[in-house]
Design a protein that fits this description.
Blueprint: E1 12-14, E2 27-29, H1 44-52, H2 57-79, H3 87-95, H4 100-127, H5 132-148, H6 152-167, H7 175-199
Antiparallel strand pairs: 1-2
Length: 209
């Protein structure tokens, strides 16, 4: 009689015998590992934690301080009828990103840089106008002076920004008038930021109420 093998998909593996000779002992039991389902993973929890991890009392208080300072700066600039009043709140927003100790040091540097940029801008605007070569020479000159006086990059940045506002922004006013207006606007923004920093100091994470 022709031999044939068992081809069933059972968990048992038969020994090569004829179908007439198959006995219960003719099978080799194969144990398959139990199918374990993975534990349920909540994929949304880490994502929400990353989104709201910086949302705390300290960050919200800093946001409120910055908002009040910017609004006060804009209100005072409009009250004094400054021609480009938006430069006051822009300066306030920049200064408010520093801590109290950094604000005192950096604000003095920025005020000095603004004064130098206004003076240099008035001189270059009067003699050369919006000339690219004159503007580039002024940027390099102000940066060099800030390095020699150890005023730091904050002073150099505000000096060059003020220089650009006076020299490159075309206005009907003279260069001296533009320089004075830019200095007043930037100085007002710095003073308001310092005032809010003193009256409403930022609390550290370990500070208790």
């Amino acid at each position: 009689m022709r031999q044939r093998r068992w081809t069933s998909g059972s968990d048992r593996l038969p020994v090569g015998r004829s179908s007439d000779q198959l006995t219960p002992n003719a099978f080799i039991q194969i144990k398959r590992p139990a199918l374990e389902l993975p534990a349920r993973v909540d994929y949304m929890t880490p994502r929400w934690n990353r989104i709201f991890q910086d949302l705390n009392v300290q960050s919200l208080e800093h946001l409120a301080r910055t908002t009040v300072a910017a609004m006060l700066s804009l209100y005072l600039a409009n009250l004094f009828k400054l021609p480009e009043s938006y430069w006051a709140p822009i300066t306030t927003l920049i200064v408010m990103q520093s801590t109290l100790g950094d604000t005192l040091t950096v604000s003095g540097q920025r005020l000095a840089g603004t004064a130098m940029g206004a003076v240099a801008g008035a001189m270059l605007s009067r003699h050369f106008g919006p000339n690219p070569l004159a503007f580039g020479a002024g940027v390099f000159m102000l940066g060099s002076i800030c390095l020699l006086l150890h005023l730091g990059r904050a002073a150099s940045a505000l000096a060059n920004v003020t220089l650009a506002l006076v020299v490159l922004v075309g206005r009907a006013d003279s260069g001296f008038t533009l320089a004075v207006n830019r200095f007043i606007e930037v100085a007002l923004g710095i003073v308001v930021a310092l005032l809010l920093t003193f009256l409403w100091p930022e609390r550290t994470a370990g500070t208790t109420q």
